[in-house]
């Protein structure tokens, strides 16, 4: 199996989505199941409803998965296996208070060395542990040998026991810490490949150490994807960047197919620039993804989005715009010369149907034209309509075309009325009312 394991602690950002997409593609290529594991054991940071939001976004991007599990549901397994590790003397109860740990942390800071636990509680006798009533955490003993693994993108890693440390696996309330729960779940779920962000590289030796301590020797392959930088600032995309939020991109009118296209294209060798996820499954190679940070350029995404809108069936585009008419879909594509998102196209179409009471500088002409158009018979052709209006009102030149454009489109400029009219003629009654 493969797994996508988000935490319900905030909006899904593009880095998360990229991880989900790559897991989906590789699961299809390997013909292995993909599961969604909501990592919700940190109760204080969980936000109500974020797990549902994550699944809604995955469905929006047509990312198929076998099942959804919540990490918190496996609590009894996490506790049971921790107890097993303690019984085998591979983990131990730690009674050190937060104050004591802060003191050790400050000492390490003063001595300019990395903070590591001093293993004070590791050698306490069973009798001492039994007779101590203070709350305790459970720590896993540090490994005796180096932990080595190979990342499919970044190559070989080698961590000394000091780097891995005697880290906490169960908190005082006996809920599992991230690395422990993650390692146990990957083992229980028979995960074969882990694809995630490079901020998890230092977690990997800890998770391998937990599984080694349990005698689990199946090798899990790892791929740690480089971070995403803002192309404009050169800095890591953060929550302050609107474009880092998938929800924001969707609200701005970027199509899921275009976002997915760009996230696969970014920092990657692809045979073509514009493609669908289904097409990417045919040629995608995870090892071809760049080892360097990918740069997210919103203007590049706009270009790709425009291409995906162009590829949309006109009826489908019409429905996305809130209609059910091929003509409105065609109208939307006319505005692609000036717009690159669904939101921008809607902003171009909206004035056509908005109430229009006057036209600045052409107030009299506007009223005369409006009255004429309200009484006019239906014309299939714009030239015929124009001829009829000129005959009925006597208007010509800018006194005709300025207010006529405004009545029909709600704006002073834009594509030729001759191109727009055939697509809005069936709505004239509503437009001129």
Automatic annotation (TrEMBL):
Gene Ontology CC entries for this record: cytosol
Reactions the enzyme catalyzes: tRNA(Glu) + L-glutamate + ATP = L-glutamyl-tRNA(Glu) + AMP + diphosphate
Cell membrane found in the keyword field: no
Motif 'KMSKS' region: positions: 236-240
InterPro entries in UniProt: aa-tRNA-synth_I_cd-bd, aa-tRNA-synth_I_codon-bd_sub2, aa-tRNA-synth_I_CS, aa_tRNA-synth_I_cd-bd_sf, Glu-tRNA-ligase_bac/mito, Glu/Gln-tRNA-synth, Glu/Gln-tRNA-synth_Ib_cat-dom, GluQ/Sye
EC id: 6.1.1.17
Domain Glutamyl/glutaminyl-tRNA synthetase class Ib catalytic stretches: 3-302
Gene3D superfamilies documented for this protein: 1.10.10.350, HUPs
Source organism, top-level taxon: Bacteria
Gene Ontology molecular function: ATP binding; glutamate-tRNA ligase activity; tRNA binding
UniProt keywords, alphabetically: Aminoacyl-tRNA synthetase, ATP-binding, Cytoplasm, Ligase, Nucleotide-binding, Protein biosynthesis
Aminoacyl-tRNA synthetase class I anticodon-binding domain: residues covered: 368-423
Keyword set includes Protein biosynthesis: yes
Positions of ATP binding: 239
GO BP annotations listed: glutamyl-tRNA aminoacylation
Subunit relationships: Monomer.
Family: Belongs to the class-I aminoacyl-tRNA synthetase family. Glutamate--tRNA ligase type 1 subfamily.
Family matches, as NCBIfam families: gltX_bact
Protein name: Glutamate--tRNA ligase
Organism the protein comes from: Arcobacter aquimarinus
The organism's taxonomic lineage, starting at the top: Bacteria, Pseudomonadati, Campylobacterota, Epsilonproteobacteria, Campylobacterales
Gene name per UniProt: gltX1
């Amino acid at each position: 199996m493969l797994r996508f394991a988000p935490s319900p602690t905030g909006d899904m950002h593009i880095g998360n989505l990229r991880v989900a997409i790559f897991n989906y593609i590789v699961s299809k290529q390997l013909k292995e199941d993909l599961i969604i594991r909501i990592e919700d054991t940190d109760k204080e940071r969980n936000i109500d409803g974020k797990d549902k939001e994550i699944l809604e976004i995955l469905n929006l991007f047509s990312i198929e998965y076998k099942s959804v599990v919540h990490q918190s549901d496996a609590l009894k397994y996490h506790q049971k296996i921790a107890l097993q590790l303690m019984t085998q003397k591979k983990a131990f109860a730690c009674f050190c208070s937060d104050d004591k740990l802060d003191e050790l942390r400050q000492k390490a800071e003063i001595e300019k060395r990395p903070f590591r636990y001093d293993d004070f509680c590791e050698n306490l006798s069973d009798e001492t542990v039994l007779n101590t009533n203070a709350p305790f955490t459970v720590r896993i003993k540090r490994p005796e040998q180096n932990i080595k693994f190979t990342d499919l993108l970044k190559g070989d890693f080698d961590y000394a026991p000091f780097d891995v440390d005697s880290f906490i696996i169960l908190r005082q309330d006996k809920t599992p810490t991230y690395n422990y729960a993650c390692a146990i779940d990957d083992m229980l779920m028979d995960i074969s490949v882990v694809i995630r962000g490079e901020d998890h590289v230092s977690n990997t030796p800890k998770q391998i150490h937990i599984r080694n301590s349990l005698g689990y020797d199946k090798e899990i392959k790892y791929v740690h994807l480089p971070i995403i930088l803002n192309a404009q600032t050169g800095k890591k995309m953060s929550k302050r960047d609107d474009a880092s939020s998938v929800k924001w991109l969707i609200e701005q009118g970027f199509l899921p197919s275009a976002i997915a296209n760009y996230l696969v294209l970014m920092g990657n060798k692809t045979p073509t620039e514009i493609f669908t996820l289904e097409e990417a499954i045919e040629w995608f190679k995870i090892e071809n993804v760049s080892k360097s940070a990918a740069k997210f350029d919103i203007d590049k995404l706009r270009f790709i989005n425009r291409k995906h809108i162009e590829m949309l069936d006109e009826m489908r585009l019409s429905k996305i715009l809130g209609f059910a008419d091929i003509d409105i879909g065609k109208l939307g594509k006319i505005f692609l010369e000036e717009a690159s998102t669904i939101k921008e196209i809607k902003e171009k179409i909206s004035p056509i149907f908005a109430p229009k009471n006057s036209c600045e500088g052409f107030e009299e002409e506007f009223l005369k034209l409006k009255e004429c158009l309200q009484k006019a018979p239906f014309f299939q052709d714009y030239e015929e309509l124009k001829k009829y209006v000129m005959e009925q009102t006597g208007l010509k030149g800018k006194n005709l075309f300025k207010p006529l454009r405004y009545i029909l489109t709600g704006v002073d400029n834009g594509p030729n009325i001759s191109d727009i009219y055939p697509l809005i003629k069936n709505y004239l009654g509503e437009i001129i009312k």
